[in-house]
Design goal:
The longest helix has 19 residues. 27% of the residues lie in helices and 27% in strands. The strands form three sheets. The chain has an eight-stranded mixed β-sheet, sandwiched between helices. The N terminus is likely disordered. A hairpin with a 4-residue loop joins strand 11 and strand 12. The chain folds into two domains: 145 residues, Immunoglobulin-like; 244 residues, Alpha/Beta hydrolase fold, catalytic domain (Rossmann fold, 3-Layer(aba) Sandwich), CATH 3.40.50.1820. The protein is α/β, with parallel strands linked by helices and 408 residues long. The protein is built from eleven helices and 18 strands. Helix 6 packs across helix 7.
Length: 408
């Protein structure tokens, strides 16, 4: 039978397992992708490798397994992922006598993750991180682009694709902020057909411009509103230049949102005064800012969409997180613990199983439920990424804006 990819490193070793990572159990060799099995059945030459690479779309995907390929001269090649609160490495194995490197990785179905390839050509200290040149799938964030692996069964939600739905429009407002001693410029999304005589629900999004750029927010809003899955809403796209400093120090930020941004919005747009139809949304530290604003000013927002929040509920975990931002977040959570219960509030909490924050967000969901908040929790096999937050937007917005039992 053909050798597994792992065996290629030492052809004299005969095993029945493929490469493993993340502490997973060995992959049965019969799970190998048929194209890899065919390639390894003989002694691959340059022509066979060229044909193999040109005939495939990488990574090769089948249930529970993804196969990655890289070509070139190197001393070591790794796939690197930002998961479990750190950097995860999985080594490629070179096919002897060729410039082809392969990695067979156990994965969960119906998921995705982002990665880069780390190539060491000249020994220690000379590593280069790059996109996967054999994989056209990309995802952007404020730090650049990553390659994307979509595992077996994953499909990009159709409501994130352009469906020629009637489009909303963006406007700009200026907010004079005493809280920060500066003038802030915010963008506003108005739904198609906005009517100044009609009061609209409101959504305030932390890092809102980034949600437009990296999470396809505009297309999602247009599609969900056109389909009637959420009502037409006005969306304030709040953006800060210093999220690491502002969001964990939540006092001034909360005052800005409630006492400065909200009055500026009310002065210009016709917005409902019903807290049940007002919500805040944020991811990572933006989720911390959303939660803290709700507790510092209860009764203004009756909905919270908290995605992959950088929460610290168990202070013992601070020992593994030296950055001062986590200590500030822990103090924020302490303040929330002491606060009284919120007025009628619905919260949607989501996380990615590959994050280092999955357990903390589960604990937050349980904590808010005990605080009397109506909570819906959702998880995906994904990381701390904008496309993870994009994919869960529909569920979050439908949860916080769906009518309650006493509404028509």
């Amino acid at each position: 039978m053909p050798k597994t990819i792992a065996e290629l490193r030492n052809p004299m070793t005969i095993q029945s397992t493929a490469i493993v990572s993340d502490g997973a159990q060995p992959t049965d060799a019969t799970k190998m992708h048929p194209a890899v099995t065919a390639l390894l059945a003989g002694i691959p030459g340059e022509a066979a490798v060229e044909a193999f690479v040109n005939a495939q779309t990488f990574p090769l995907i089948q249930p529970g397994v993804a196969v990655f390929a890289w070509r070139g001269e190197a001393e070591r090649v790794d796939l690197v992922r930002w998961i479990h609160a750190g950097i995860d490495r999985n080594a490629f194995h070179r096919v002897p006598g060729t410039d082809l490197w392969l990695l067979e990785l156990e994965v969960e179905d119906y998921g995705r993750f982002e990665y880069k390839i780390a190539v060491n050509r000249h020994g220690h200290g000379h590593e280069e991180w790059m996109l996967d040149g054999l994989n056209p799938s990309r995802a952007g964030d404020p730090f650049g682009e990553n390659s994307v692996c979509s595992t077996y069964g994953y499909q990009k939600p159709d409501w994130t694709e352009d469906q020629d739905a009637p489009g909303g429009r963006f406007e700009h407002i200026t907010v004079e902020s005493d809280a920060f001693g500066e003038t802030r410029h915010e963008h506003i999304y108005l739904p198609h057909g906005y009517d100044a005589d009609t009061p609209y629900p409101l959504l305030v999004i932390h890092d809102g411009d980034d949600f437009v750029t990296y999470a396809g927010l505009r297309i999602a809003l247009d599609n969900l509103i056109a389909a009637g899955e959420i009502p037409p809403i006005v969306v304030a796209l709040s953006q800060t230049r210093d999220r690491m400093g502002e969001y964990p120090r939540a006092r001034r930020h909360a005052r800005y949102v409630v006492k400065e941004l909200l009055p500026a919005l009310e002065a210009r747009y016709n917005l409902t005064t019903d807290p049940a139809k007002r919500a805040m949304l944020g991811a990572s530290l933006g989720a911390v800012a959303s939660l803290m604003t709700a507790f510092r000013f209860p009764g203004y927002f009756g909905g919270l969409v908290l995605q992959s929040g950088s929460f610290i509920l168990d202070e013992r975990k601070l020992r593994g997180r030296g950055h001062p931002v986590f200590h500030r977040v822990a103090r924020v959570v302490k303040a929330v613990r002491r606060a009284p219960e919120l007025p009628a509030t619905k919260a949607f909490i989501s996380t990615g199983e590959l994050e280092g924050l999955a357990d903390e967000n589960r604990a937050l969901a349980e904590f808010l439920d005990q605080k009397g908040v109506d909570v819906q929790f959702q998880s995906a096999w994904d990381g701390h990424h904008w496309h993870n937050w994009r994919d869960q937007l529909r569920s979050g917005l439908m949860w916080v804006f769906q009518p309650t039992n006493n509404e028509s």
